[in-house]
């Protein structure tokens, strides 16, 4: 049997190095991760806040998704994954030309050698073009900024947020990404961050807490009572987030490999375990299960498994799920209320607990539970293993601690400097009048234009609802009639409430 036509070498769109299966999976994984942000987190943010903040919260996520993409291709991708400028930062340059985007992917751009000239940590060359890699990594950058935004919902000045997004991407995210993934000093040192427990979650959780401190709290009324405006819609967004995480962790090997399969099943096992444990603690402590709590437990499980999804065994994923269901629960529900500092900082969605605490927990557990044979499938640094497997495992746990301290420290410093600089030109927090009004003051729009809620149904413009019998020809005596139709009434009057 001859070679299938799609793989004939004369086809210009199919170079010899291209593997269509790997490329198809990478584009699929990218789309799944993109759906986590848009519409996943857009829906969660719009529904988990008070009604008066639904539009503003959704728009903050929507804006960040678009702004990050443009900054990413103009400058930031190559700051995070390009040639080395500093041990923790790459040389910024556009990722727009077809000569760059259509060549075979390579990450990192550099290869690390021992003093004797032998390779210590080789560069990875996936079987797909740079365009697929650039887009995949964009979706990670975008979700990091959007997760950070969850800490400052319902009070951050939208203009300050618009300035903050590109600055934080440039001066904070790219540093962590290059250091751990793009060939920086932590990458070559052998720190394990399989798919972003540190780069994404520890980073966003730490920066979110810092941003919440500098922006200031919500209004007193909002802090005292902040019920979700649509719990069922929140669950729809949470479902997109959970299912999208298969692309989040499954795309990390840059191939449709057995390690991708291992990462996907571990991701779902840990998330399910964590959700059940968190819910059990809610029942035990509060007497009833909370839907919002279950979503938080799902989130901490997904975050915790991320740094080790493809390098731990399935039983270890259950252990990580148990711990991610109880430790962040304790810090959020118990410790937070006892801590004077945490009480002063208004972290709207508890991003510090669900992402920083869970991400740190996952990174440290990876340093203990990373299985040597699984590590050999994916990690460029030789002989990587968790501390429980002997050998150099103890050193691995130490590396995980040092990397966590670097990520947290850099985010505290960079986020502070960025926000204080913006504050010189734009107020970080909305005015008290805007905080009282909400979406209408910030955007001139409201989330729900419900009939009878500030709206008037005009039958002369819209007609009746599919010929409903409710709309019979009758004198217009209701207070909801259209003043412009004071003449003899048209067919299709209004319902008299």
Automatic annotation (TrEMBL):
| Organism, as annotated | Heracleum sosnowskyi
The alphabetized UniProt keywords are: Ammonia transport, Membrane, Transmembrane, Transmembrane helix, Transport
The record's listing under Pfam families reads:
Ammonium_transp
Entry membrane topology: Multi-pass membrane protein
Please name the taxonomic classification of the source.
Eukaryota, Viridiplantae, Streptophyta, Embryophyta, Tracheophyta
Where is this protein localized, as stated in its record?
Cell membrane
Instruction: Please give the start and end residues of each transmembrane region.
Output: 24-48, 60-80, 134-154, 166-192, 198-216, 228-248, 254-278, 290-309, 315-336, 348-370, 401-426
Q: What GO cellular component term, any one, is given?
A: plasma membrane
On the tree of life, the source organism's domain of life is Eukaryota
**Molecular function GO terms recorded:** ammonium channel activity
- InterPro entries per record: Ammonium/urea_transptr, Ammonium_transpt, Ammonium_transpt_CS, NH4_transpt_AmtB-like_dom, RhesusRHD
The answer to whether UniProt assigns keyword Disulfide bond to this entry is: no
Q: Which family does it belong to?
A: Belongs to the ammonia transporter channel (TC 1.A.11.2) family.
Query: Where in this chain does the record put each Ammonium transporter AmtB-like domain?
Result: 24-448
UniProt name for this protein: Ammonium transporter
């Amino acid at each position: 049997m001859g070679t299938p036509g799609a793989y004939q070498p004369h086809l210009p769109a199919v170079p010899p190095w291209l593997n269509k299966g790997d490329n198809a999976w990478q584009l699929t994984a990218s789309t799944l991760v993109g759906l986590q942000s848009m519409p996943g987190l857009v829906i969660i943010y719009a529904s988990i806040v008070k009604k008066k903040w639904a539009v503003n919260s959704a728009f903050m996520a929507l804006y960040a998704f678009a702004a990050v993409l443009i900054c990413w291709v103009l400058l930031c991708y190559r700051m995070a994954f390009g040639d080395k400028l500093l041990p923790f930062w790459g040389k910024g340059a556009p990722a727009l030309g077809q000569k760059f985007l259509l060549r075979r992917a390579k990450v990192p751009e550099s290869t690390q050698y021992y003093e004797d000239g032998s390779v210590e940590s080789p560069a990875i060359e996936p079987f797909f073009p740079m365009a697929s890699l650039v887009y995949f990594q964009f979706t990670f950058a975008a979700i990091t900024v959007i997760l950070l935004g969850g800490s400052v919902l319902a009070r951050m000045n939208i203009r300050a947020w618009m300035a903050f997004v590109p600055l934080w991407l440039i001066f904070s995210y790219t540093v962590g990404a290059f250091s751990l993934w793009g060939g920086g000093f932590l990458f070559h040192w052998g720190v394990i961050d399989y798919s972003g427990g540190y780069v994404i979650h520890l980073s966003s959780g730490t920066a979110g807490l810092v941003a919440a401190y500098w922006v200031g709290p919500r209004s007193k009324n909002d802090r005292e009572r902040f019920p979700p405006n649509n719990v069922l819609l929140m669950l729809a967004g949470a479902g997109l987030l959970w299912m999208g995480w298969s692309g989040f962790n499954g795309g990390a090997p840059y191939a449709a490999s057995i390690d991708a399969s291992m990462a996907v099943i571990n991701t779902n096992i840990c998330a399910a375990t964590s959700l059940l444990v968190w819910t059990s603690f809610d029942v035990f402590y509060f007497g009833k299960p909370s839907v919002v709590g279950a979503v938080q437990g799902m989130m901490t499980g997904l975050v915790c498994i991320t740094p080790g999804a493809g390098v731990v065994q399935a039983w270890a994923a259950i252990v990580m799920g148990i711990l991610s269901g109880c430790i962040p629960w304790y810090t959020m529900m118990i410790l937070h209320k006892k801590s004077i500092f945490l009480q002063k900082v208004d972290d709207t969605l508890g991003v510090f607990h669900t992402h920083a605490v869970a991400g740190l927990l996952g990174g440290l557990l990876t340093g203990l539970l990373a299985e040597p044979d699984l590590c050999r499938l994916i990690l460029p640094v030789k002989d990587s293993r968790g501390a429980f497997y002997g050998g150099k495992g103890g050193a691995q746990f130490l590396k995980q601690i040092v990397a966590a301290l670097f990520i947290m420290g850099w985010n505290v410093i960079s986020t502070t400097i960025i926000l204080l600089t913006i504050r010189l030109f734009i107020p970080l927090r909305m005015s008290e009048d805007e905080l009282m009004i909400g979406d209408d003051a910030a955007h001139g729009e409201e989330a729900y234009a419900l009939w009878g809620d500030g709206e008037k149904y005009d039958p002369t413009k819209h007609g009746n609802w599919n010929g409903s019998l409710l709309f019979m020809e009758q004198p217009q005596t209701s207070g909801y009639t259209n003043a412009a139709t004071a003449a003899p009434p048209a067919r299709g009057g209004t319902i008299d409430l």
